[in-house]
Amino acid sequence: EIVLTQSPDTLSLSPGERATLSCRASQSVSGNYLAWYQQKVGQAPRLLIYGASSRATGIPDRFSGSGSGTDFTLTVSRLEPEDFAVYYCQQYGGSPPYSFGQGTKLEIK
Amino acid sequence: EVQLVESGGGLVQPGRSLRLSCEASGFTFDDYAMHWVRQAPGKGLEWVSGISWSSGDIIYAASVKGRFTISRDNAKKFLFLQMNGLRVEDTAVYYCARRQSGYNFDYWGQGTLVTVSS
Fold this sequence. Notes:
The complex is a heterodimer. By secondary structure, chain A is mainly beta. Chain A contains no helices and 11 strands. Chain A has strands at residues 4-7, 10-13, 19-25, 34-39, 46-50, 54-55, 63-68, 71-76, 86-92, 98-100, 104-108. In chain A, strands 2, 4, 5, 6, 9, 10 and 11 form a 7-stranded mixed β-sheet that branches. In chain A, strands 1-3-8-7 form a 4-stranded antiparallel β-sheet, with no helix packed on it. In chain B, 0% of the residues lie in helices and 54% in strands. Chain B contains no helices and 11 strands. Chain B has strands at 3-7, 10-12, 18-25, 33-39, 45-51, 58-60, 68-73, 78-83, 92-100, 104-108, 112-116. In chain B, a hairpin with a 3-residue loop joins strand 9 (92-100) and strand 10 (104-108). Classes of the chains: A mainly beta, B mainly beta. The A-B interface holds A 31, 33, 35, 37, 39, 43-47, 50-51, 54, 56-57, 88, 90, 92-93, 96-103 and B 35, 37, 44-47, 50, 59, 61-62, 95, 100, 102-111.
């Protein structure tokens, strides 16, 4: 089983600042099948990044993903007020084939 | 516009059954694998089950295997989740999600709440 551990659990920043969120896998993620989602309160998750570094349709270029193997990062270059939400990473591979990290809450400082 | 609309949630007693539905529109339904993901109140996301476009490939999380059954009707563009032997710990919002080729979920429904309680 591949376990994804996100850090930090909570990140307090101000609009305009840069956010760096981490996702570490217990085993190498095959094919770099690593995705990032944003979830706001009362809403469904929204796909931001897939394949570790490709932006999904309609996602602003201030969101970027990087990493490979077991260490992945989501960066928001300059926070907008609407970016404060919970972020999840998700991997494919192993058993169970799909799993999510526990989430990082990005809150306004 | 891609739309996924879940229905069928509600309050049910432990041990009872419930069937969730997800109606798809705005895309060629039988081109895609479809999945269910759930979220317990105040908790994170948990993958539940997935089904290939042809129903030939079906997978479950260990926590629901043997109790839940996923199925689809490509002609009517529906995804289903039959949940039997429900437990208190199955209480969650259940989302249906479209899986794209890179093994991630590019569209999600708004979710349907299942509450298991006596």
